[in-house]
Amino acid sequence: MGLGTKAKYESMIAEGSISQDPVQSLAIDKLQKLADELKGYSPQSNSGLNWLFSKKNNNVPKGLYIHGGVGRGKSMMMDLFFDTVSFKKKRRVHFHEFMSEIHDSIAAFRKSHDGDPIPLVADEISKSTKLLCFDEFHVTDIADAMILGRLFTRLFENGLVVVATSNVAPDNLYKDGLNRQLFLPFIDLLKEKTAIFVVDTKHDYRLAKLENRQIYFTPIGPQSKNRMRKIFHELTGVDHGKSTSLQVKGRTLEVPEAHQGTAWFTFDDLCNQPLAANDYLALSDAFHTIMIEGIPILGPKQRNQARRFNTLIDTLYDREICLVATADAEPHDLYPEGDGAELFKRTASRLMEMRSEAYLSKLQMETV
User: Fold this and answer.
1) What is the pLDDT of residue 48?
2) Is the Cα torsion angle 297, 299, 302, 304 positive or negative in sign?
């Protein structure tokens, strides 16, 4: 049998791969307690009469909702818990990827079933998953907000245990969203089914890894890509992330690679597609670090790409997102002439600022 969550965490401290953090240690204690409770949890089937009796099942452990600023180690702790917990029907998934799957499943059930498809989708999930670990729990899309209450009412009735990480407290989910009053019962349900833990450590481990580091590489080529890939590994602990997607006003925005709040794109992914401000806002809500590979030198014929790039950088800058990039030139030489070249000077100036120690220090102060 491998190490438990707490033992693995302590071994990582002893090895020097992570630093001792008293707030993280408390969160790890909570996760270890849940792991111990799951050892004695035997979820009932959601078929036949068992589903009716499962509503009265008091055996379901209470989950955990961990929230706090970016770079506080929440995803790392989630990984430790998921990798060490001895529970068979478990799944770890980015929240936006999960909701994209839900929308696809609802559409498929509507083609073959009459009535409300959401209970059917929930029951299908329950066949294979009783422990659901969400990373980056964040609700911005009204379509997601209107589904979550009914979906999770059924999932919790079926004996689901949820562990989630988020940058926001439950009461701030879908804040200022359209028809938010219809979403409030889901918040109450989430608070009933999970214990809430705030990771309020003052140290931003993400920014510590970027301190005194070059994060804008030129020119484009294997060497600059390798250096950016190294930063991705240092931020996430993996060489490559997994593809995922976001729902933006009923549309699907593909994310080629993502892990632990960091997303990797090419310039073409973000600026050669018909994307707009809402798409870039959704990215800023979902990820704290955006990596862009292959920003080219643009000419007059690429004015649409230049315009989208302006919007992208303005959004990332305003939302105080970390940017790591490879480019074919320094910022002020990326769009020397063409429609909007004067406006692009502001984008170039922001690109210069976003790679500075002052910008990163500002992020650290804002997240404390």
Assistant:
1) 46
2) positive
The strand pair at 63-67 and 194-198 is best described as parallel
Model pTM score: 0.65
Number of separate domains in the chain:
2
Pair 275, 335 in one domain? yes
Report the 3 state secondary structure along 101-142: HHHHHHHHHHHHCCCCCHHHHHHHHHHHCCEEEEECCCCCCH
CB under 8 Å to 104, separation ≥6 — which residues? none
Cα angle 64, 65, 67; round to 5: 140
Secondary structure in 3-state letters for 54-83: HCCCCCCCCEEEEECCCCCCHHHHHHHHHH
Which of residues 179, 198, 217 is at a domain's end?
A: 198
Residue 207 has a pLDDT of 60
pLDDT at 159: 94
Are both 11 and 76 inside the same structural domain?
Answer: yes
Closest of 95, 94, 93, 234 to residue 174, by C-alpha: 95
Distance between CA 308 and CA 155 in Å, rounded?
40
Domain boundary among 174, 198, 222: 198
Q: Do 99 and 131 have their domain in common?
A: yes
* Residues of the chain below pLDDT 70: 1-2, 44-58, 70-71, 201-212, 361-368
**138 and 218 in one domain?**
no
Its domain, for residue 140, covers 5-198
pLDDT, residue 73, reads 79
Alpha-carbon distance of 206 to 347, in angstroms, equals 24
Verify that 158 and 13 share a domain, yes or no: yes
243 and 146, same structural domain?
Answer: no
Paired tokens of 169: 């407290």
